[in-house]
Structure to design on (567 residues):
């Protein structure tokens, strides 16, 4: 992923109407956006990502930050709202809140094509890692996604989620500890030693 | 952001997970690149607010933060809080209006104010529910199944709806888990029967529906017995068009009748992009001849560029001049709510030179509507 300075420059160029600047931003952020949306449980992450970018480019001139990390927080706030709207419109939001077991089972089915041995031998794919994060509690999963996948700092995540920085740190720590206890992750860590 | 000043806590064993989560984007995550650039061009070429392109020499100015802006933001926050208070105060009434448990006069007021979000009007008086004798439910395309086979009536024959009887001690309420569904969506209806306010267990009830396509005709679609708690639940797996539901009693409770629950169906608009300049939209539920509107993103706003009726296969074909971002609208009718498609980005053909970038150029309609697809 690009450095902060490169992305600052890309953002400045994009705001000036430069396609290459925009493309650099998109190339860096779209994969993170898709992973974040998948952690949130969006069935159609590609569509929501497209809608997010559409709103972002439409409102780019109203974005008053100067740095790429501010843009990142802004973009992912749009994405979060889009994802929530989408979930509500499909009336599945409640199911997602109440049904982590269902979600986990769905992911188990998604990952059924690859054996644990393969995962240990070849390491985790990004898709599998995202599926592992989705198994966490909703709060932990979103904090892990925003801090690690998106790369936002604690203050930005706290502002985005309406939580205190302390609770964000606690959720991140608990989420990572829970990930470390996952059988797949433990097997992988043992092989790496 | 999460750099040296705000490091992620080190938890042994998760290094590989973090590596995978932060890996470079793969091909599947970057497939929308062309569409994204087309979208960016469309927004840029239509907008007047993009900054000077002379970036190599000019530093990027941080937008000024005038003092009045902060005051304005505070004022807006105050207004927002006031609005939120009003909304919160109304929320209970809104919920009650959704459930149609308000008095008729209040329900009608709520309907006038909140009809855009699906609050129905007050149910008509009991005598108004009587069906047209001998009317027959039209053939609904989806051929939807009933939840429980009803021994009381043919599912396709109109129902002799009960009239309100003198037994006011027995009451019935019907509510739905949702009042708006996508085309052919599922709705779960729960009825509650009470005698003098206490749950009435074992009451024999039937669920009736009235499709918007056949006003006046009420059909029995399921029957059931209430539980010890006096409730009964029906799952209707497919709601094809706007539909009203009603719970009624049978036998000794023939005079029992609940409130009506109106479920609105949002049409699904599916957009295909079979050729570089062609967009095909298919809508359902809809009727042949319903107007479908194509909009293009111009200058940050959706602008209507063409409208044409749906063809016999409920689709319409539009010719567009990419690059651009487009969407389709279907207005509300008696059978469905208004619908909007997801935006689609159409990239420029590789061999085609970019069109002019003046904002005025994008404002002119560039569409060549054609009749519905074969």
């Amino acid at each position: 992923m690009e450095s902060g300075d490169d992305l600052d420059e890309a953002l400045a160029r994009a705001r000036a109407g430069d396609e290459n600047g925009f493309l650099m931003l998109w190339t860096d952020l779209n994969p993170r956006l898709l992973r974040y949306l998948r952690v949130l449980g969006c069935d159609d992450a590609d569509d929501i990502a497209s809608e997010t970018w559409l709103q972002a480019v439409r409102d780019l001139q109203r974005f008053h930050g100067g740095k790429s990390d501010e843009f990142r927080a802004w973009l992912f706030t749009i994405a979060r709202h889009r994802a929530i709207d989408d979930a509500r419109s499909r009336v599945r939001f409640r199911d997602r809140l109440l049904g982590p077991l269902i979600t986990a089972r769905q992911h188990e089915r998604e990952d059924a094509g690859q054996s644990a041995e393969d995962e240990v031998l070849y390491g985790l794919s990004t898709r599998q890692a995202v599926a592992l994060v989705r198994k966490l509690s909703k709060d932990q999963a979103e904090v892990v996604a925003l801090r690690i996948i998106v790369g936002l700092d604690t203050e930005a995540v706290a502002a985005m989620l309406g939580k205190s920085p302390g609770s964000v740190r606690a959720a991140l720590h608990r989420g990572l500890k829970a990930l470390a206890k996952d059988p797949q992750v433990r097997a992988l860590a043992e092989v790496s030693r | 952001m999460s750099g040296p000043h705000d490091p992620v806590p080190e938890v042994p064993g998760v290094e590989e997970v973090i590596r995978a989560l932060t890996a470079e984007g793969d091909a599947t995550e970057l497939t929308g690149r062309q569409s994204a650039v087309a979208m960016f061009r469309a927004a840029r070429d239509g907008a007047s607010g993009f900054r000077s392109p002379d970036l190599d020499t000019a530093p990027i100015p941080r937008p000024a933060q005038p003092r009045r802006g902060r005051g304005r933001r505070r004022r807006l926050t105050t207004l927002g809080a006031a609005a939120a208070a009003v909304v919160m105060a109304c929320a209970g009434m809104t919920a009650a209006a959704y459930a149609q448990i308000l008095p008729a006069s209040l329900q009608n007021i709520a309907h006038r104010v909140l009809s855009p979000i699906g609050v129905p009007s007050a149910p008509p008086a009991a005598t108004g529910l009587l069906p047209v004798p001998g009317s027959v439910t039209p053939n609904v395309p989806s051929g939807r199944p009933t939840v429980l086979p009803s021994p009381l009536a043919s599912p396709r024959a109109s129902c002799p709806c009960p009239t309100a009887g003198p037994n006011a001690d027995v009451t019935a309420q019907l509510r739905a888990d949702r009042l708006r569904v996508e085309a052919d969506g599922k709705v779960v209806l729960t009825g509650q029967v009470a005698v003098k306010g206490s749950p009435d267990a074992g009451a024999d009830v039937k669920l009736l529906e009235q499709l918007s396509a056949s006003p006046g005709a009420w059909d029995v679609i399921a029957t059931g017995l209430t539980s010890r708690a006096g409730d009964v639940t029906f799952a209707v797996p497919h709601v094809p068009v706007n539909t009203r539901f009603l719970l009624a009693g049978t036998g000794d409770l023939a005079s029992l009748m609940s409130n009506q629950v109106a479920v609105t169906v949002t049409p699904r608009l599916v957009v295909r992009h079979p050729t570089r300049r062609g967009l095909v939209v298919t809508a359902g539920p809809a009727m042949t001849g319903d107007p479908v509107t194509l909009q293009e993103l111009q200058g940050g706003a959706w602008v209507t560029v063409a409208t044409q009726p749906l063809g016999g296969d409920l689709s319409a074909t539009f010719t567009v001049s990419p690059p651009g971002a487009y969407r389709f609208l279907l207005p509300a009718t008696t059978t469905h709510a208004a619908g909007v498609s997801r935006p689609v980005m159409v990239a420029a053909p590789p061999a085609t030179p970019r069109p002019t970038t003046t904002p005025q150029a994008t404002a002119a309609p560039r569409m060549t509507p054609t009749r519905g697809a074969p």
